[in-house]
Design goal:
9-stranded mixed β-sheet; 167 residues; globular; single chain; disordered C terminus
Length: 167
């Protein structure tokens, strides 16, 4: 895969709220990854920044507004069917509001040392432990449907700015 010249078809975000030794996860009810466990998130709307999208998507999917968000990761996904996705990953230190189930997601808390990776996308076990440990990363993944074909994860010192791939 030529990642240097790669251009994603879609841009999205993920937001993991981590507080008190626990992390908020969701069981997705529809869309890409329906039935899988992940963090709240989704595609950016026109004119929206990744940070704005992470806050909006979390509010829409689980009824709470995350705060204290820090960018901890960048995900690059290429699927054999041609679909491609760039995703900015945030960790939130807290939230306001009342957690609730929606048409999109069923939220639940788990201890950070008991994340159910067997119910998640195969790539998650390669980068989620890093961000739950306060590290930053950049990951590159190729998939055939739900089967991961290759992966490369770089641990970073952090992000100086929120930069999206240039089209």
């Amino acid at each position: 895969m030529d990642w240097k010249n790669w251009i994603p078809r879609e841009i999205a975000t993920l937001c993991f709220i981590k507080t008190g030794g626990r992390v908020l996860l969701i069981r997705k009810k529809r869309g890409l990854g329906a039935g899988k466990i992940n963090g709240p998130g989704g595609r950016l709307e026109p004119g929206e920044t990744p940070l704005e999208a992470a806050i909006r998507e979390t509010r829409e999917e689980v009824g709470v507004v995350p705060h204290g968000l820090t960018k901890h990761g960048e995900l690059h996904f290429q699927f054999l069917d041609g679909y491609s996705l760039f995703c900015t990953v945030f960790i939130a230190q807290g939230f306001e509001g009342d957690l609730c189930e929606t048409d999109e997601a069923d939220p639940f808390w788990v201890p950070v040392d008991a994340v159910p990776y067997d119910g998640m996308w195969q790539d998650d076990e390669h980068w989620l432990p890093l961000i739950l440990d306060g590290k930053s990363f950049r990951g590159f993944f190729e998939f055939d449907g739900e089967k991961m074909l290759s992966h490369d994860v770089e641990v970073l010192e952090g992000f100086e700015e929120n930069v999206l791939p240039v089209n």
